[in-house]
Structures are given as structure tokens and as C-alpha cells.
């Protein structure tokens, strides 16, 4: 390897990583928006929303894979390698659990619980804030903006906890054992999505504390 190529290998790849993370965040926002809209106008006989969720999940898998490829190929990164790994995995988890939620809603074929759309709206709002935070995280240009988005995401997760508790109480009042099992499972998947969003927020907050 020539001396020029050696120096090139050690050059920071800030743009590569930030561009990929911004793509992931934007795709998650699109995915969560379609998920929410799909539940607002839900038709169990039309699986278009489920197919779209699957497509988004595969697209995000590819982007996550590319982040890890770049992590393996580059010696110098814009922030700690472990933080990049945690951030990439956390974002991928949001997509995975969102897709799982959609899948089980279709598989179980139960009446939609009103809490589903409450969750999907919280998930969408969380993803919007993740995208905003990711844009502000680039080059550490707006640490305060990142923190503000992280606080909002944490508040959405707290609301989601309350939504889950109230929905389960109402669910048990129906005395329909089969539907209780099915709907409770979906509700828990939806709540996990907000947990994963909070994990991402905590990772971004940690990065800002370390490097901004």
C-alpha cells in the first residue's frame, strides 16, 4: 500500500457515518408515519401496510449492515466505535419491533384495540425526534438540540408506559381470554418500540456528553 493510501485509510469518515445515520433516522420516520396512518385506516383484508413495514425493515437492515461494514473498514470514526455500534443496533431494534407489532396485528386477526393508535402516534413522534436529534448530532453542531429531543423521547416513553397500563386494565375487563392473550402481546410489542426509542435517545445523549 502506497503512503497516500495509508494516510487515506486513517482519515476520519465522519461524513460516511453521519450520512448513514441520517438515512436510517429518515427511513424510520417514514416507516413510523406509514405504520400510524395504516392503523388509523386499518383493514385486516388489506395487507399493504404489513408489506410496506417488511420493506422498510429490510431497507433498515441493509443500512445497519452498511454502518457495520464501514465500522470494520475505517480506523478513525467521528465518535467511539462502541457508541456507533450501540446506536446502529438500537435504531435497528426500533424497526424490528415495529415490524413485529404490525405482523402480529395481522396474524392474530383480533379487533383493533384503541391503544394501538395511541402507541403508533407516540412511536411516530419519537422517530421524528430521533431524526431531529440525528441532524443536530452531525458534527456536534447543536448539542442542546440533541438533548431537547432526547428529553421529548423519554417523555413519550413515560406516556407509553401509562397507555400500556390503562389498556391492559380495560382489556382484562372484557373477560375474553383468547383476545386478552393476543392483544396484550401486541400491546407489549408496541411498548417495546418506545423503550427502544428511549435507548437510542440515551445513547445519543451519552455521545453528546462525551464529545460535544
TrEMBL record:
Family statement: Belongs to the UPF0111 family.
Superkingdom of this protein's organism: Bacteria
InterPro entries: PhoU-like_sf (IPR038078), Put_Phosphate_transp_reg (IPR018445), UPF0111_domain (IPR052912)
Lineage, opening ranks: Bacteria, Pseudomonadati, Bacteroidota, Flavobacteriia, Flavobacteriales
Residues that span the membrane, as ranges: none
Name by which UniProt lists this protein: DUF47 domain-containing protein
